């Protein structure tokens, strides 16, 4: 389970941000991960990396100074459309942000949609930033979703691990809270307060239960597990699973980027975790 909140503005006031992103990564505590950093094979990219044997190098969220951001969220409770050829989702984000094939955003998404049936179910949010506009598109290969990417309007939006158009209650509630935070503190002068408020949102452990969509997708799980999954911040220590990484990205009108990450230090003790933080700055070359 993961969650993503995103606000974009193609024509913000001089003191406001063009992009505000806040995201949680929920994963098994034992899964080895590299903290967000500039990538060795492409120093224009910042993001965390999967180190699980056989999946090394995958990523769930990454940003390129060329003006691309990719975020992937698994879709819970869906069967793979083609189990015989199912492949991992971990390189969908790296392939987009590194852009080794020199594809336009639309070209990449068309190619991805043609092979979508080969992957385990996912929601992919692609962001392409130029001097004139921020183009956000969403694509899901899950059953019931369109077979092509869709444009996402400016303003605050939220995504989780359900199919597009059927959000969990925590996504709806979180997006509403996210909108309030952006409206109250989304200015350069309030940046420190904005970051703290976003971090508090990502650590929000309020239960949003019952949730019929979540219960349907976690059919077979105990009521206790389902309820603890209904919060923005998830912690299920007896299953070795929960929220282990927070990410915040801010981009101003001049294309200056703040990429911040807070992640549990490995080996993770879910009862008493040690959080380590990192902050990276860069200038978008597309702005």
TrEMBL record:
Transmembrane segments: none annotated. GO terms for cellular component: Golgi apparatus. InterPro entries: TANGO2. It comes from the Eukaryota. GO terms for biological process: Golgi organization; protein secretion. Pfam families: TANGO2 (PF05742). PANTHER family: SER/THR-RICH PROTEIN T10 IN DGCR REGION, TRANSPORT AND GOLGI ORGANIZATION PROTEIN 2 HOMOLOG. This is Ser/Thr-rich protein T10 in DGCR region.
